[in-house]
Amino acid sequence: MRQLLLSLMGLVLGWGAVHAQTTTDAPALSAKLDEVEHKLSDVRYQDMEALLRQVNLVHDEASSCITGIEAVLAKIGTDQTLLGEPVSGEAASVAEKRQALRKERLDAERLLSTCRLLVLRSDELHQQIDVRQTALLQQTLFARGPNAWTLLRDNWSQPALWFNATTRFISSTSGLERLSSLEYGVLAVLVLIAFVLSFRLRARALRWAEVQISEASFSRRFSLAFLSVLGRYAPQWFTSSVVALYLYVISMGISPLPFITQVALGVPFYFLLLTLVYLFLAPKHPQLRLIPIETPIASGLVRRFTVLMLVLFFGYLLFTTLMVQSFPHSALLLARSFYSAALILNLIWIARLLGRIPQFQRVAWLKSLFIMALLAALVVEWLGYRDLSAFVLRGVLGSLLLLGVFWLVGRLIREIIDELATGERRWARQVRALFGLAAEDKIPALGWLRIFIQATLLVFFAIGLLRVWGGSESGLLSLLSGGFTVGSLTVVPARIALALAVLGLLLFLNGWIKARLSSHWLDKVPLERGAREAMVTLSGYVGGAVAVLVALGVAGVEFSNLAIIAGALSVGIGFGLQNIVNNFVSGLILLFERPVRIGDWVSVGNTEGYVKRIRIRSTEIQTFDRADVIVPNSDLISQQVTNFMLHDPRGRVRVPVGVAYGSDVYQVRELLLKACSAHPLVINDGSTPAPKVLFRAFGESSLDFELRCYICNIDSRMDVISDLNFAINDLFRAHDIEIPFPQRDIHIISEKKAAQPFSGDYQPSAHRVEPDKDSDE
Questions:
Q1: Prediction pTM value
Q2: Which residues, including other chains, have CB under 8 Å from residue 339's CB and lie 6 or more apart?
Q3: Do 363 and 344 contact (CB within 8 A), yes or no?
Q4: Which of 31, 169, 309, 494 could bridge to 326 as Cys pair (CB 3.0-4.6 Å)?
Q5: What's the CA gap between 417 and 423, in Å, rounded?
Q6: Strand (E) positions, 548-702?
């Protein structure tokens, strides 16, 4: 199985065994490594990412070469074993074939040695690049420039520096002088049109958002909050976007872009960030707030985030536009010191407000760590370690931003899966109908889909964190594809993620096949209901086993180790798993022999009810009181089981009836048969014995009759008996036939005794009660 999976993966990636042997250019790969070594020897070269990518490429090609040649050597060894040892007088063709195999083996072994050497060299170079990259990172982070006090003193000594730089910037690089009167007019018309259209969009969005939202789901509240916030900021965002697009179009071909164009391009992003703030914290309807916090805290966060957006916008203007080229370096560094203070103090204020939220009070240490990291970034910024400050600030803010994004994405995906599981929304019902699922049915493998999505989000979140904190792209790819070693176990995250994806996909496909088999594909096949259910159940187990085996193969599990697992299972079965194995085998017998089927009316011991579900270990029986009883499958095989519907759903019902002494017994028989023949479920077509009335006995108070008849479905026995009793009572009343109740005749005989002398004690006369001889005692 593993060889098959490797072959399939080789076909997909274009690296089959023979292909790897015949196309690997070992000298070219060695030359690439020589080039990497030469660049590493140059202390001025700093692009370690490019070197890592080149080394990883050589490593992957050499590893593919090794895999392919090992497969070829295994094939050559098999062929040599089939030829056997050379013997005297053998055919010349056999000797030539043996010689060719020997030569082919020597060539393959030489190439295998070269590829292994390339892998070793690439690993050594990878370690050298990591060391060099770490040294460069340390050199960059701990490079120190002038501190804030020095910058303040230098700029204070030159008071006209800022004024002259600002005047020169406005007059020469602002871009306002480039616009003609016509362009100003066109811009004004576009702004007017955009403003009018955006107000119409705002009115429509607000009208759509006016709905009942008290019980809305998260995804529904998200869409409604988006409409509400869109109505709030539609004029600003739409108008600024039109202005930015117009200025960008008329500035095309000008390098660098005029300052006015750069400002216009930043304004829509500013309003977009404000839209996100109001989307989560303060929409028009407070009940639409996506983060469940109190209104005072939400209002304070809105104010702080609004200030933060302004600070970020000014930072964009100050450090990414033409202002960088127009102002002196010392002035920009001083502006950066003040800017960092404003940014970090505002972030600390936001952190304190977030700490008041009850959900975040459980992780108060995280707030303290966040504030300490921000204060450290501010201190090292003022001390002159600006690269270190930017590194810490970028890492902290990037981590929080990633956390928020992945929380939002995970919440939305969970809501979508929940709606798909319940089928409350129209689109969810359509998807369920596509898989042939009823409203009460569960979607197969939906739990595995949840696990796969959560694992995927976690993996991407970890990758994002590594990238935010300076992890190299090549290092991440190497970690994902090459893995890491824990003891004697090699963990390859890429293989594990791929195995989980394959497992979830195959299990989902298996559930879909089961649903289609049950609802569509087996409907036209002339099989009994039990046979169809057995095929559906067995297909589910087989598909699940195949999915697990394929996923294990993709994950890199050696199937040769399954013998050890099988041995451990045999020992476990011998010591304490006999009952489980017994039920498992009994479940297979039930599925193939089908003595009971889903929907059958059975009686097992003291349990009587309908078979609701047959699993591989136990069977679920629902009693008439709607209680579910789990019966081990071994009990259904080893004990006596009564199945009222095994081969034929028809059955016999018996209705006992008593009439008063003196009634016309022949008339009674006719009336009973009449009541029986009038019922629609009673069989009267001759396929079963005809209804019969038996005169059973002369009872204590009545003449005892019994009506026996067969009905179409024994499942309706109690309903039929009740209907027949109603009909018999009506017929007897119409024909004055009495249904007696139990009676007793008591005869009291008193005997007079002779008078006794008075002895001081009161003695009443004795009375003896004797039953009538015709009645029972």
A1: 0.53
A2: 311, 314, 315, 318
A3: no
A4: 169
A5: 10
A6: 601-604, 607-614, 618-623, 628-632, 641-643, 651-659, 692-698
Q: DSSP per residue over 616-638, as a string?
A: SSEEEEEETTS-EEEEEHHHHHH
Crossing angle of helices 26-41 and 92-141, in 10° steps, is: 20
CB 398 within 8 A of CB 468: yes
Q: What is the dihedral of CA 472, 475, 479, 482, to 10 degrees?
A: 160
DSSP class of residue 652? Answer: E
Q: What is the pLDDT of residues 650-662, one digit of tens each?
A: 888 899 999 998 8
pLDDT one-digit tens code per residue, 560-573: 556 666 666 666 65
Percent of the chain with pLDDT over 90: 5
Contact 190, 247 (CB under 8 A): no
> How far apart are the C-alpha atoms of 527 and 477, rounded to whole Å?
53
**Residue 63 near residue 70, CB atoms below 8 Å:** no
Reference 707, options 686, 742, 678, 744; nearest CA is 678
- Tokens 């040769």 belong to 560
Q: From CA 732, how far away is CA 709, in angstroms rounded?
A: 19
Token pair recorded at residue 597: 């089927």
The percent helix, strand, coil of the chain (3-state, each to 5) is: 65, 10, 25
Q: pLDDT, tens digit, for every residue of 714-754? A: 878 888 999 999 999 999 999 888 888 776 677 777 665 54
23 token code pair: 């196309």
Count of residues for the chain?
777
Other Cβ atoms closer than 10 A to 57: 14
Residues 243-263 have pLDDT tens digits of: 888 888 887 777 777 777 888
